[in-house]
Design goal:
The chain is mainly beta. It has one helix at 48-54; strands spanning 9-12, 21-24, 85-88, 105-108. 6% of the residues lie in helices and 14% in strands. It is globular. The two termini are 21 Å apart. This is 3-methyladenine DNA glycosylase.
């Protein structure tokens, strides 16, 4: 949780009990079939709390298998997209003395859904 208020979408990328995960901090909602004539709106999910609220992430999603789930899953594009990626130090982790300056934050360069750079 962030600030004790919002759930986060943190994806474990390796085996259990091995420290490897990716925190999804933002997303661009490009299609919403529940809204007629939906036009992409980058501010709907431009932060970790907003992304989780939009996707309705909550405590029951903890441990969800994102390969097999029918409610939330990771897909694979048939034609991979190519983006320029920017790396920066993570934000708001001043307590992490040995890691606060490491470039562990990745985002698509100049993407409109990136709220903090």
């Amino acid at each position: 949780m962030i600030y004790g208020m919002y759930f986060c979408l943190n994806i474990v990328t390796d085996q259990v009990y091995y420290p490897s995960a990716v925190l999804l901090r933002a997303g661009e909602i490009i299609l919403d079939e529940t809204i007629p004539n939906f036009i992409s709106k980058p501010n709907l999910a431009n932060g970790p709390g907003k992304l989780s609220r939009y996707l309705k992430i909550n405590k029951t999603d903890d441990g969800l298998n994102l390969i097999k789930s029918s409610t939330l899953y990771l897909g694979q594009e048939t034609t991979p997209s190519v983006f320029d990626i920017t790396t920066t130090p993570r934000v708001n982790i001043d307590y992490a003395t040995n890691f606060k300056l490491k470039p562990y934050c990745f985002y698509i360069t100049n993407h409109k859904a990136v709220s903090k750079k």
